[in-house]
Amino acid sequence: MKLEEKELFLKKLDELFLKSIKSSMIHESTMHVENGSGDFMWSKGHGGRSIDSIMNLASVTKLFTTTCIINLIQQGKLSLNNKLSRFFDSNILEGIHIYKGKDYSYEITVGNLLFQNSGFPDVFALGRNNLNKRIVNEDLILSLYDYITIAKENKKKFAPGTPLKAHYSDLNFEMLGKIIEQLENTSLHEAFKKYVIKPLKLQNTYLIEKDSDFSAKMYYKHDALYRPNFWKSIPDCGGCISTSKEVMVFIKAFFNGQLFDESIFGQLRKFAMIQYCPLLGQYGGGFVRLNISGIASMYRCKGELIGHMGGSGTYAYYYPEKDLYFVGDVNQFAKQGDIFILPLKLAKLANKCIG
């Protein structure tokens, strides 16, 4: 990056951050940008937050779960083609996936879960008093059986493994987490330590396991919600706690081959559109792709953003076109659109400022 490009980029990042926190609903926020070589770093915080502040990662956690799954595949302990019947008994699988009168319950594979193409419904968004609404009013404690019950009682989206189909469902990753625990014969937190936390020497990244473990507040409009039991009960799909600084270390390691064989991405780069961001948003093997070069993108940048976002307002993306990494948090459960928009704006800035 040339000196004049760097100076312009820094100025525009400052301006973008100031605009992003103008909303009265953004009480706390962080934004953190680094390049792959490590010679460019910029960060800002708002509301007393910094890149060292603890935050709830929500679905960015799925990248940690994905890391464990990939390592188990590399070790030969797991295959994307393994049927779920290898890991779950009939109490869970019986009737879990009936679509157009045909029972697919025993045909679902590990790959269907990882690629979000099992056809399971979005277990958090179903019903008038759905889980997303209940989180606002109570510190929910959820179990795999709660997700299973919701899935069994509601319509499936398509047959498992239907080509070019994806439907985002947290049930997929809750089941992946239980598979990891079986194969590792330990808790998911210990698996995260083994495959992510210890190799990267992270000090402030963990899953909540006991009452004394700290979780950050999450805002819903102007109300600060404390939901430690909720985060504790969803470790596989959204319960990881970390900081922007450590998520940056992780996302760089995830995409540069530090945590598993980089060639594995050849198997994971098979994308299908997901429901929350049609045309622009796609899901692959455990991570999201935002196609920012397509006609559907008003930002018309080159390339793609790959990574994940979380419903509490977190995002962690790699922008290969400019070798930049974007990590941030708007910490607003009622303003989740920002977790799509801000990374796109960051990519657009990079295109304007960097040749």
What can you see in these coordinates?
This protein is an alpha+beta fold. The chain has a single domain (3-353), classed as Beta-lactamase, CATH 3.40.710. It has helices at residues 3-20, 62-74, 90-93, 110-114, 131-137, 144-153, 170-184, 188-200, 228-233, 244-256, 265-268, 338-353; strands at residues 29-35, 41-46, 54-56, 98-99, 102-103, 206-207, 218-220, 223-225, 240-243, 272-273, 281-283, 288-291, 304-310, 314-319, 324-329. It has an eight-stranded antiparallel beta sheet with strand order 2-1-15-14-13-12-11-10, with helices on both faces. It has a three-stranded antiparallel beta sheet with strand order 3-9-6. A hairpin with a 2-residue loop joins strand 4 and strand 5. Helix 2 packs across helix 7 (170-184) and helix 2 packs across helix 8. The radius of gyration is 20 Å and the shape is globular. 47% of the residues are buried. The model has no long low-confidence stretch (mean pLDDT 94). InterPro entries: AmpC-like (IPR050491), Beta-lactam-related (IPR001466), Beta-lactam/transpept-like (IPR012338).
